[in-house]
Amino acid sequence: MHDIGTDHGLLHRGWQRVLAGERRWGAMEIRPDRFGVTRYRLMVYPPGISESERRRVRVARGWPLWGALMWVVSEIFLNQITGPWTTLAISTALVVGLGTVATIRAGDPRRMVKTVFVAVLAGHRDPVTMAERDRLENLAGVLMEADELLARGELSESAHELVWWRVYDRMGPASPRVKG
Questions:
Q1: What is the DSSP letter of 22?
Q2: Average pLDDT value for the chain
Q3: 2: DSSP letter
Q4: Contact by Cβ (8 Å): 62, 27
Q5: Calculated CA dihedral for residues 142, 160, 165, 131, nearest 10 degrees
Q6: What confidence tens digit (pLDDT) does each residue in 126-139 have?
């Protein structure tokens, strides 16, 4: 027999983890893609960011994905209630409005996120690309090692944040803002 309170707590913690992310400093992704390409991406939040700020940044950065999903779902349901042009207008206004709110709520920390991206084509050993991939993996490794040391109690919170600052500074300028 399940305790509803326990299930709710587990669901709440799971949802919070989705919103906040697995690691407080950011994320490292290695993703095989089509045609033998492997994509590497290291995304690092500004050090000192609070958990609530990090959640707002993740929601704003994820807007293209959740916004598209929300648009499709609203199109399906609203199309049963109203005409196609009204449905299109409402769905689009809803998604654009929520994306704008998410972006405004994320504030300055959203613009301070740093991202390094490298795509490596299998069988092509371009020295510049390989060096950038190695740099990206090294930076991520430093952060993950600091996480492990912190979890074992071998590194203090302040020392962990110092490691985070060093990696953040070594990444170069923050991700460029889109001008429009």
A1: S
A2: 85
A3: -
A4: no
A5: 0
A6: 889 899 999 999 99
Q: Indicate whether 168 pLDDT > 50.
A: yes
Q: Is 69 exposed, middle or buried (0-12, 13-18, 19+ CB in 10 A)?
A: exposed
State the pLDDT at residue 178. Answer: 40
Residue 123 CB-half CA count within 13 A: 2
What span, in angstroms and rounded, lies between the C-alpha atoms of 159 and 42?
21
Residue 45 banded pLDDT, cuts 50, 70, 90: very high
Q: How many residues does the chain have?
A: 180
The answer to whether residue 58 scores a pLDDT higher than 60 is: yes
* pLDDT value of position 5: 52
Handedness of CA 132, 138, 142, 148 (dihedral sign): positive
Dihedral sign, Cα of residue 94, residue 97, residue 100, residue 101 = negative
Q: From the CB of residue 56, how many other CB atoms can be counted at a distance below 10 Å?
A: 21
Distance CA 74, CA 69 (A): 9
